Amino acid sequence: MSYIPGDNLCICDLSGKKVLMSKTRKTWDGLRVYAPLWYPKHPQLSVRSIQEHMVVRDGRPRQADIFAHLPYGYGAFCLVSPNGTEWTFWVDEDGALIAANVLYGNPVPHIDMCSWRFTVDNDGALHLTQLFGIMTPQPWRLVSPGDVAYYLTVEADGAVIIAAA
Questions:
Q1: Among candidate residues 32, 30, 28, 25, the one with its CA nearest the CA of residue 41
Q2: pLDDT score of 136 more than 70
Q3: Which residues contact 74 (CB under 8 A, 6 or more apart)?
Q4: What is the pLDDT of residues 64-118, one digit of tens each?
Q5: How far apart are CA 165 and CA 150, in angstroms?
Q6: First and final CA of the chain: distance in angstroms?
Q7: CA angle 13-18-19, nearest 5°?
Q8: Which residues pair with 142 in a beta bridge?
Q9: What residue segments make up the domains of the chain, in order of their start?
Q10: How many CA atoms lie within 13 A of 121 on its CB side?
Q11: How far apart are the C-alpha atoms of 163 and 141, rounded to whole Å?
Q12: What is the mean pLDDT of residues 30-44?
């Protein structure tokens, strides 16, 4: 390196080499680097984001739970028939769906599961109505009072299958 009046020596922040100040450039993030090692600011670092207005439109409070708990197991559900009779459905230890004219929970006129609607008639018989096109069956987890887990699934043809989990 030859002497140049007024040109100081400095250390390159990337390579650590001693170079003349006139042979360096300053990067966008404030580093003093040897000219061949200089790099521009990446364009993605200057992209401005678009502010999103995340607002819940027509927000409503959470509805009351419709599932009953012990003594009928977790996942029991309560339906009310057209004449006002309240029915509780749960699965017993053998995997059978039981209906009783008792109230344990918050009864509702129907429960929608996947593309099916569960309703009950005045005699306590459970009925299924298809709401819209056939979808992939999704299991609904029910637990008997003895903590045995079962999955209730409605097949495409409307068959209700209760199988051990």
A1: 28
A2: no
A3: 67, 142, 143
A4: 655 544 566 677 778 888 888 888 888 888 888 888 887 766 778 888 777 788 8
A5: 5
A6: 79
A7: 95
A8: 150
A9: 9-40, 67-164
A10: 6
A11: 10
A12: 93
